[in-house]
């Protein structure tokens, strides 16, 4: 692989800041998509989460319709829709509708995690049977609703309208080697959630490249990695903007669903030594720091993983600093400081 510019994308969670309404949070997501398009990003994705007070992206297809109406050139999609939570036909109809409205710039990224706790997952599915072994068949059915199915499939006579014959760009999202291998075997693009599962990134991307088989969807592999970015030339600002999210994550690890943390609470919070070690481990391989540090950290990750691009996940507490993260990465990209360097993968 020769030196080439990275593919740049954005992942947004429609974050609700302290004191904001849900309406303001969702409008913030739309505003971020517009800014990403202005900055030249290729993709803007939203992720499905449920029951989390600080995240309003529980209905990706609905939010993407508003994002599509506010933009004109950037690709829009799910990063991702959690397939076990939905009937495949419903997803095919939703994304078929999006493609009917916004054309070929709609991506369909699929994940196999619930995106929530077990009780909420059961409420979504209306069953206590949460069998991940169903995922391969669910995925095959979803693809089939767009492309057609074998006659032996009992669903083969059902048509997704809109959807059938209007095939989106399929992505499989994951944080494990299993998802990487499934994406490779199906010959579709793969996005790894490095922004919250950084221990297995190199191994997962190696598995994806090793298992990739050309398909009707792709002739060559395409892999992106999510990278959390918090940046400013003042290290104190980086630390301050990171703190509310870290406090929320610590509380989630303790089994709660925290409300958004205010800047005042974050400034007053006393992190224990254990919490500081946890934060250091969580941020070590993310792009936190000054502009030069962000460039170095992203390039190091691309070099070690062989990724074709990065999905910027802005991690700052306040929207102006989340926008700043997009602006810094886009600026580095425009200057040619972010490259797909030649690596040995597999």
TrEMBL record:
InterPro entries attached to this UniProt entry: Bact_Lucif_Oxidored, CmoO-like, Luciferase-like_dom, Luciferase-like_sf
Coiled coil: none
Location of the Luciferase-like domain: 19-308
Pfam families named among the record's database cross-references: Bac_luciferase
Family classification: To bacterial alkanal monooxygenase alpha and beta chains.
Protein name: Luciferase family oxidoreductase group 1
